[in-house]
Design goal:
The protein is of the alpha/beta class. A hairpin with a 2-residue loop joins β1 and β2 (about 25-30). α2 crosses α6 and α7 crosses α8 (about 210-225).
Length: about 500
């Protein structure tokens, strides 16, 4: 069985049941399947074949879902692209992945047009709302061109399904190759851990270019005949109004998302009684926040903390609601079909409550990094995925994350790798040295703080540095605070002393 079979199976059982809600439109499973088949045949007519990479840059919408399942139906590998990326970031992903087809929201057309000539392998461009002459064809035209004949392509469980890009500590994103088998086993693990049931009405708020939203939120609902209520972009009043209108039962998101919802001044105007399940990821949900969520959603029966990473498709552990108080700060136990260990620097298992690196193995782990053999060997050495997270495991098998991957910053659920921002800063002609660390942020969890050394006689301001970053990076990666310093502290081997930088007061 492959991931595309999940939709085909559900159609046979619940053809008239609603599958998707987007804005004010609804699609039944039957209607969704027809559009997927048409789009798959349209893609095949354009020459797309098994193994080709299909890049997708949409907001959460029916277009993303249709394109995803259509590409999988013909054996293509889907490469989601962060819609917040700017030109150079998008260009890197398309070229590194080797994508030959690029689907995107028409709102991004100018952004894509500016880099189109630099996209080496992309031959087919498809955009929503495209009209008139241009390099992109209209999405609905491609759907209409495809017929409804069943698509027959042999797609095996071990074949690549997704090419999901995740930044590395070098600053260059790496494409994790996720097989159909990995996605399927992730579904089994996550459904057991979260106690998912058939026919839920789930808000899909996190962007579908992330494995959590795509594999844990959308795909599970497709598998179980649930309703995926797609939120185009997070906005508290829109989310609350949607909960009330659609009688949503499940909501998932980062701690920052829950805080924004609860802080919305007019939240009490909306009926939130339909919500019975909450899940949280990207950062640990504080116990006090959980208590606030239970008051905000008075009928919630459980809050689930989910921990994982892109390379694991993504779930590794889940903490159930009944353990929240007893195991405060934990991310729960390993999933039934995942093994986890805490190991020392020589990869030897450590006893309970000893700090070490969390490693994992199981059928949900990636095949490797696309085109990066050395990085793959390092990440999967000894047959275990090395997460880079410092953690401990107690006597009952509950995992506690002590520190995150290297120096990664998590802001509003988005991963930001300092080295990527540092490279952009160092490309500025007036900056001779730079370092980036995370800064505690009461709303977003963390924000970016940059330490910058400018050349003698330079006249840079904080606003100029931020603007430079905005031109080369997604907006959420730009520094919130820029501190100008005489030099960046380093150890004798030249490594930046980031612990010392994190301890500096913001006034310095």
């Amino acid at each position: 069985m492959n991931v595309s079979d999940l939709l085909k199976n559900t159609v046979t059982k619940f053809p008239k049941r609603n599958a998707l809600v987007y804005l004010n439109d609804h699609w039944t499973y039957e209607a969704l399947e027809e559009r997927v088949i048409r789009l798959a045949n349209g893609l095949a007519r354009k020459g797309t074949k098994k193994g080709d990479r299909v890049a997708v840059m949409f907001y959460n919408s029916n277009h993303f879902v249709e394109t995803y399942f259509a590409a999988l139906r013909i054996g293509a590998v889907v490469t989601p692209v962060n819609f917040r990326f700017v030109g150079p970031e998008i260009e890197y992903i398309i070229n590194d992945s080797g994508a030959s087809v690029f689907f995107y929201d028409g709102e991004f057309h100018d952004r894509i047009a500016a880099i189109q000539n630099g996209l080496k392998g992309a031959k087919v461009f498809v955009a929503t709302g495209a009209s008139g002459p241009g390099f992109a064809m209209d999405y609905e035209v491609l759907v209409a061109e495809g017929d409804t004949a069943e698509v027959h392509v042999a797609v095996e469980e071990g074949d690549p399904c997704q090419l999901m890009y995740t930044s590395g500590t070098t600053g260059r994103p790496k494409g994790a190759v996720i097989s159909h088998r990995a996605v399927m086993w992730n579904l089994v693990n996550t459904m057991l851990g979260r106690e998912d049931q058939e026919g839920e009405k789930a808000l899909v708020i996190g962007p579908l270019y992330h494995t959590a939203a795509l594999n844990n939120h959308l795909t599970i609902q497709i598998a179980l005949g649930g309703i995926s209520i797609l939120i185009r972009r997070f906005d508290p009043p829109h989310v609350l109004e949607t909960i009330q209108r659609e009688r949503a039962t499940t909501i998932s998101g980062s701690p920052a998302m829950y805080s924004l919802l609860m802080q919305y001044p007019e939240a009490q105007r909306y009926d939130r009684t339909s919500i019975t399940k909450c899940t949280a990821g990207s950062a640990i949900l504080p116990l006090e926040t959980k208590r606030q969520i239970e008051q905000f959603f008075p009928n919630v029966k459980g809050i689930y903390d989910v921990y994982g990473c892109t390379e694991a498709a993504p779930t590794l552990t889940i903490l159930r609601g009944e353990d929240s108080v007893r195991k405060e700060g934990s991310v729960g136990k390993a999933m039934p079909f995942v093994q986890v260990r805490i190991v020392d620097e020589s990869d030897h298992p450590l006893p309970p409550n000893q700090l070490g690196e969390l490693v994992a193995r199981g059928p949900n782990i990636m095949l490797g990094y696309h085109g990066q053999e050395a990085a793959t060997r390092e990440a999967l050495r000894g047959g275990w995925l090395h997460t880079g997270d410092v953690a401990r495991m107690d006597e009952e098998g509950y995992i506690y994350i002590v520190d995150r991957k290297k120096d990664m910053i998590i802001s509003g659920g988005e991963n930001i790798y300092p080295r990527e921002v540092e490279e952009v800063l160092l490309n500025h002609p007036s900056i001779v040295d730079a370092a980036v660390v995370g800064l505690a942020d009461p709303l977003w969890g963390e924000s970016v703080r940059a330490f910058v050394v400018i050349q003698k006689g330079g006249q840079l301001t904080e606003e100029m540095v931020v603007e430079h970053c905005r031109e080369h990076l997604a907006s959420y990666k730009k520094p919130k605070i820029v501190t100008f310093v005489e030099e960046i502290p380093r150890n004798p081997s030249g490594k930046i002393l980031k612990t010392a930088l994190r301890e500096r007061p913001v006034s310095q």
